[in-house]
Amino acid sequence: MRTIVTYQKTVRHTIKPRKMKKLVLSLITLFALTTLVAQEGQDSLAAKKDTSYTIKWGDKTIIVIDHGDGDIDIATDDTIKIESKPSQRYNHYAGIDLGVNGLLNSKNSVNLGEDEKFMDQHYWGSWSVSLNFIDSYIPIAKEKFGITIGMGFEFNKFSLSRDFTVANFQDSTIGIPDSNGFEKNLFKMEMINLPIMFETNIGKDAAHSFHLAVGGMVSYTLGSKTKQVFELDGEEIKTKVREDFNTNPFRFSLMGRIGYGNFTLFATYSLTPLFEEDRGPELYPFTVGVSLVHF
């Protein structure tokens, strides 16, 4: 009987130091490349998570894009396409109004009588500037019909055309003749206004809509003053006097605003005399003008 003996030969491989160094460098390089690819993937994913903020200014849209890495881009609807529904209503009160002031007597005439003539004026130079900073719209039929409530400051200037000094005399406001020959003879007032109006907008969107608002306005007189500029002995003299001049502290006015799109004309007529009853001439201020800027 033959006996067969088998055996397994074990072979040991020894890695020399030089080859070990190459292997370690290869592993480090592979790890670095893997980390870099992973980081690029994360950066690419983060880029897709940019945060954008939209700011409305009138009929303009401003978009601020924050990339999250300190970089910020700013774009407008002129440079990128904005997929959004057109505005259905603009603010027609909030903004800056510029108007021309006038005065009517008790006969609704601009031709003032003998006791009123010291308030005759140059219309060019009799300005009203209003800064209307609140416009709150209460819809009744969405943007088509509603109520507008606002608030604003008004600065009035009447450029007087005659050489009279407006003054208080025995609790009354009168005009005292003056022979100085004024270069400027101004009567100024500052007020805060609180209007409430019924408003309608007719059109497919705000940019193509006819708008009309009518209502009333309560005004509170913050102060009044006169300013005169004249020449005396070759020297320019300026005088300013701040008093209440018996002006009515509260004024109730009718107000109307009309326009198309972002263009608005306005008019106000005071139902309250400029001066308190029996303490000055019976004169009723009015203003007509245009909105320069809408907020």
Descriptive notes:
The strands form three sheets. An eight-stranded antiparallel barrel has the order 4-6-7-10-11-13-14-15. A three-stranded antiparallel sheet has the order 1-2-3, with no helix packed on it. The protein has one helix spanning 17-47; strands at 51-57, 60-66, 72-76, 95-105, 121-122, 127-141, 145-160, 164-169, 172-177, 184-203, 209-232, 235-243, 250-260, 263-270, 283-294. It is elongated, with a radius of gyration of 38 Å. It has 295 residues and is mostly beta strands. The protein folds into two domains: 51-84, no CATH class; 95-294, Porin, CATH 2.40.160.20. The protein contains one helix and 15 strands, in the order H-E-E-E-E-E-E-E-E-E-E-E-E-E-E-E. Strand 1 and strand 2 form a beta hairpin. The longest helix has 31 residues, at 17-47.
What keyword list fits this structure?
295 residues; mainly beta; Porin; 2 domains; 8-stranded antiparallel beta barrel; 3-stranded antiparallel beta sheet; 15 strands; 11% helix; 54% strand; elongated; disordered N terminus
- Overall shape: it is elongated
Strand-pairing-aware structural class: mainly beta
Strand count, sense and barrel status of the largest sheet are: 8 strands, antiparallel, barrel
Strand line-up of the largest beta sheet:
4-6-7-10-11-13-14-15
Beta-strand segment tally: 15
CATH class of the largest domain reads Mainly Beta
Count of DSSP-assigned helices: 1
Looking at the structure, the CATH topology of the largest domain is Porin
Order of helices and strands: HEEEEEEEEEEEEEEE
Roughly how much helix do the residues carry, as a percent range? 10-25%
Strand residue percentage: over 45%
Q: Rg, please?
A: 38 Å
Q: Tell me, rounded to a whole number, the average pLDDT.
A: 83
